[in-house]
Specification:
Blueprint lengths: L3 H5 L11 E5 L2 E5 L1 E14 L2 H8 L4 E3 L2 E2 L2 E14 L4 E12 L9 H5 L10 E9 L2 H11 L3 E3 L5 E3 L2 E7 L6 E15 L4 E7 L2 E10 L2 E13 L5 H8 L9 E17 L2
Parallel strand pairs: 8-9, 8-13
Antiparallel strand pairs: 1-2, 3-6, 3-16, 4-7, 5-6, 6-7, 7-8, 10-11, 11-12, 12-15, 13-14, 14-16, 15-16
Length: 268
């Protein structure tokens, strides 16, 4: 079924791509999924190396970038205002990774890889937690893409260099995480395409995410990530990785987020 947003952006070459209908437990979805308008805050942290190793065990993935001995992880927060599957919010806690066969994890080449087209790169993200605000987005993400989604209330505020987002535990209303603060904007940076690694029915998969429109880089001194009182897996992962109370190394944001989430493909 064609939505109002689909019709509005139908003539845009970025979104005018062939689609395939996929069935899942909550209905059907056309992929690539098109994200027409949204906000995004992307924050990078250094994490505890032993905890990162534990969470990557058995995945066939290794940390891609490090600050000293500490692997880099990221928190990406989204407010999807118009999409081909309806509006929703999302938060991804991810480890930046390579497949094990790619061993240049300490190379500066990894920094250049961040900006390459997804079809030409191996650096990607392994998602440890991915809360979303709708049951449909949760079911499709888990069943088709193998993403560790769960449904949770998520707030999102972005403007004037101020960021605020909370994720709540739907079971008891406790806070899973809070990301808040003010950061000074500096320079514009190019869009950062994504590659996500996951598993579907025991098979390793990769998903390419094409992104357009650049982001504003910020000096992140006034921002903190905090785990809440919840004992949810995501709150525990934030604590395990040494991110409770952490200040990000870098933060970027945009209120003009647009992307395409491709079909997952089996790899290695």
């Amino acid at each position: 079924m064609t939505s109002v947003a689909d019709a509005k952006f139908a003539a845009d070459p970025f979104f005018s791509v062939p689609t395939m209908t996929r069935m899942f437990s909550a209905g059907e979805i056309d992929a690539p999924v098109r994200y027409y308008d949204g906000g995004n805050v992307f924050a990078v942290f250094s994490a505890d190396p032993e905890a990162v190793g534990d969470k990557l065990a058995g995945t066939g993935l290794i940390p891609a970038l490090r600050l000293g001995r500490r692997p880099l992880v990221a928190l990406s927060i989204y407010e999807y205002r118009q999409t081909s599957i309806g509006p929703y919010n999302e938060v991804g806690l991810v480890i930046l990774v390579y497949p094990e066969r790619f061993r240049r994890s300490r190379s500066v080449l990894g920094l250049r890889d961040v900006l390459r087209n997804p079809d030409r790169r191996e650096q990607g993200a392994y998602i440890t937690d991915l809360p979303v605000t709708t049951a449909e987005a949760c079911a499709a993400g888990r069943e088709i893409w193998g993403f560790p989604k769960f449904v949770a209330p998520i707030s999102f505020s972005l403007g004037g260099g101020h960021f605020s987002s909370t994720v709540e535990d739907e079971a008891d209303g406790s806070t899973i995480m809070e990301f808040t603060g003010t950061a000074k904007p500096t320079v514009r940076i190019p869009p950062m395409p994504l590659v996500c690694y996951s598993q579907v029915d025991g098979h390793p998969m990769r998903t390419n995410i094409d992104v357009r429109n650049g982001m504003q880089l910020h000096v992140p001194g006034g921002i903190r990530l905090k785990a809440g009182q919840s004992r949810h897996r995501m709150a525990n992962n934030i604590r395990d990785l040494g991110l409770d109370g952490a200040q990000p190394l870098a933060v970027a944001s945009t209120n003009r987020f647009q992307s395409r989430l491709a079909h997952p493909a089996r790899v290695f």
